[in-house]
C-alpha cells in the first residue's frame, strides 16, 4: 500500500457537479410516472370518477332520491342524461352520488389499511417474538375468501356504510400487513439498519427512520390496488343488500334494483356497472404504473 | 486499566444441529489510542468477536456462554438492550464492510449524520447541522456544507465509507470497531481510508479495532495484531514481531500467502485444506490437520496461549521447538 497525501479528494466528485440546486428525488419519480402511459390513462379514468364524487352537489341538480313516477323508465338521452329508474329517479344523480359513497368507502378502507396494516406488519416483521402470534391471527383471517368474510362480518354487524368500511378493513388489513411485514423483514437485515443499531439508535427510531420510509413503495402500490378491491367489494356487498341501506344510492343498490328490469330498462343496471368497471380499471392501471415505477427490482432492468 | 478488556469470552450459536461455538475462550485487551488488528480467514470468529463486544448479535440464537467484556471499567455482557444503546455511539462505534448498503438510500447524508447525533444528544437543528458539516470536513469530504444535502447514491464508494466513518465518529466514541472497512473499496481508496483512520486516531485519541483478512491492512495500520483461527486466538504480538518473527505455523502460512514484489519468494504458498466446520473441529490444536509441523502430541490438548517474549503470546506447542531447530 502506497503513501497517500493528506486525504486527497476524489476528483470525479469534486469537479463536475456545479449545478445550482439539487432536486428532491421524488421529482424524478413523478416525472417518470407522468411519462408512463398506463399510469396516466389510469389516472384520467379514476380522475373522472373522483371528480364526479367530489363535485356531486354541483353537477347533479336533483336529490338522488327524488321520485317522479310520471318519468319512470326514461331511456338515457334527452332530459335525463342517464335515464331514470323504476321510480323515475334520475340515474345520473344516483350514479354520481353513488360514486361519492364508493370513493369515500374506498378511501376509508385504504386509510384503515395504511394505519393498521402498517402497524401490524411492522411489528410482526421487526420484533421476532410478535411475528408468530400476529401472523397466525393474520393467516386465520386470510384463510377465508375475502368476500365471504366481508359478507359474514356485515351480516353480523348489520348493513350500514360504517359497517361496510369496518368489514372491508378487517378483510384487507391482514393482506396489507403481510406485504409490509415482508418488506420489513428484508429491510431489518440491511446494513444501514445494523449501522444505526451500532450507533445506538433505539427500536422506535430505527423503525421510523430506517425501515418504514424504505417500505413505502410496495405499500403505495398495494394501497392503490386495495382501493379498487374495496370499491368492488362494497358494490358486491350492497348488491347483496349488505351495504348501505336503500334508498341510499350506491352502485350496488342501483344494480340490485335494476336487475328486475334488465330486459326492459337495461341502462339501469348497465350504467352503474360500466362506472364501476371504469373505476376498477382506472385504479388497476394506476397501480400497475406505480408498481412499474416504484418497484426497485424493475428499476434495475430498465 | 485498559479501555477494553475481554476475558475468557465464549460465544455460541444455537442451531438445528446443536450448539456451535463461534468464539472460544478469547482474552485480549485494548489500550486507549491503540490500533489492534484482528486477522483470520472467513469464519475464524473475528466478526463474532466484534459483534459480541457491540452486543449486536441476535439473542437467541447467539449466547454468551462465559467470559467478560469490560469497557472503560463497565461490564457489558449483562447489560439490557436499553443500557447497551447508551454505550453504542458515544462509547463504542462501528463501521461496516459495505459502504454501498450501509447508508439509508432515502435520506440525505446530512440527515443521517444528524440523526446519529440526535440519538444521544439534545441539540438544536442548527447545532446538529454544524456538527455534521464539521464531521464531514474531518473525514475529508470536499465542500461538506453542500454535500450534506446529497443522497447516498450521489456519492462514490470511498465517499460513502467516509460518510460512514463520519457517522461513527459523530458521537466521539472511545473505541471504533472497523469490520473489514476497506474490503469493498478500490486499492487506492483503501489506502486513503486507512490513512484517514490513523489520522483520526491521532486527533481524537480513540482506540481502533480493525478486523480484516488482509495482512497488508494490518501492516499499514495496526500497533498490535491478533491472529484468530477456528474461533480461537492462535497468536498475538506487536505488529513488527508478527511480520519479522511469527511463531505460529498458521501465522507463517498467512504471511506466505501474501504476494511480494521482492523476488525473495518464488511462489505463493497456499495453506492446504480448509477451515474446519465448527461442528467438526479436530481434537487438540485446531490447525493440526493443516499444519506441516504437527506431531502426535498436538492432538492431545488445545495448546494454551503462552507468552513468548514481550507482548507476544502463541498457542502452539511446536512454536519454540521449531524456532530452536
Automatic annotation (TrEMBL), chain A:
GO cellular component terms, A-Z: plasma membrane
Membrane topology type: Multi-pass membrane protein
Membrane-spanning segments: 38-59, 101-127, 147-172, 219-245, 265-287
SUPFAM superfamilies reported for this sequence: MetI-like
Keyword Transmembrane helix tagged: yes
Domain (ABC transmembrane type-1): residue spans on this chain: 103-287
Gene Ontology biological process terms, A to Z: transmembrane transport
InterPro entries (UniProt xref): BP-dependent_transpt_permease, MetI-like, MetI-like_sf, OppC_N
Gene3D superfamilies attached to this UniProt entry: MetI-like
Subcellular localization: Cell membrane
Keywords, alphabetical: Cell membrane, Membrane, Transmembrane, Transmembrane helix, Transport
Keyword Transmembrane helix applies: yes
Homology family: Belongs to the binding-protein-dependent transport system permease family.
Name assigned to this protein: Peptide ABC transporter permease
Organism of origin: Teichococcus aestuarii
Automatic annotation (TrEMBL), chain B:
Superkingdom field: Bacteria
Gene Ontology molecular function: any one: ATP binding
Keyword Chloroplast: no
Subcellular location: Cell inner membrane
Keywords: ATP-binding, Cell membrane, Membrane, Nucleotide-binding, Transport
Major site of localization recorded for this protein: membrane
Membrane topology of the entry: Peripheral membrane protein
InterPro entries recorded: AAA+_ATPase, ABC_Ni/Peptide_Import, ABC_transporter-like_ATP-bd, ABC_transporter-like_CS, Oligopep_ABC_C, P-loop_NTPase
CDD domains: ABC_NikE_OppD_transporters (cd03257)
Any GO BP annotation: transmembrane transport
Single GO cellular component term: plasma membrane
Domain ABC transporter: 4-255
Protein family: Belongs to the ABC transporter superfamily.
Protein name per the record: Peptide ABC transporter ATP-binding protein
Organism (species): Teichococcus aestuarii
